[in-house]
Design brief:
With 344 residues, the protein is mainly beta. Helices cover 7% and strands 53% of the residues. The protein is built from 2 helices and 29 strands.
Length: 344
Amino acid sequence: MSYKTFSGLFLFLILISCKSEYKFVLKTPSKIQTNEVLEVSISEKEGKPIKSVQFSIDNKKITSEGTSAKINTKDFRLGKHQLTALVFFEDKTEKVTKAVYFMADTSPEIYTYKIINTYPHDEKSYTQGLEYHNGYLYEGTGRKGSSYIRKTELKSGKSLQQQDLDATYFGEGITILNNKLYQLTWQDGIGLVYDLETFKKEKEFKYTKSREGWGLTNNGKQLIKSDGTERIWFLNPDTLIEESYIEAYTNKQKVEKLNELEYINGKIYANIWQKNSILIVDPSSGKVDGVADLNGLKKLIEKDQNLREDDDVLNGIAFDKENNRLFVTGKHWSKLYEIKLFKK
């Protein structure tokens, strides 16, 4: 075979190969608010024919119209979703994926506060979790070697009962459900379950899906857990398995570093780590309905004591459902406040 013949054959094979190569473009916005319809389409970069397409989002099939589809975003939780197009062409198939983020449909309401009462709080407590139950405050604290759970009198701040956590663990959020007190640890991937009356540890459980242990509350049926990201997890109280999650989003962005949690009148109230504010989150969608600015409380505390700027921050939310009272405090704060929130 001559050099020219070989070169011609090689060029012919390249042209055939290039001709049969498909490059698909999945067109969709990277983020969208849930009051809008998500429109998606797919095409071949050079206009080559597509036989058919099957669209899906999070493995849920979507009815398409040729090479396009429309999705009602109201049917989905907020946060990151995986959009997939399974493309059929020639005698082949190819899967094309793209991430799309669903945002809240409105901006959060802004709240301010009024102080109703002020109570003493142990300023040595590195508060990680707070709960009001049957007339008493229960508190979980952090740091290795000084983590514990404690029962105290509200008005006096007097400690009535305490159980220290093993010095190898860094304690985090707590909650009470069905006469059990649940406590998280930070980076050890372990939670603990205590008898509420005796504080005797009954068992431990491992986090199966969430990254770390931060805040903890419950809705009367499930444990609700934060892990330092934008995700809030829902745990089965019997199996202690993370069964589902939501992601906290405003109309513009996700909200990370969710920490101490409290379930109040059908909403999740959440601290953001190192921020003196509380978010009000819809537990079904993850939408941030409101933001309460509580920076004034830290400034009030600083009149009587020195606080470390990035550490001694607001962290502790408790709710007295029977009397509709909201309590907040912070790490090493010498006071606990009963407050009432108001829309600005």
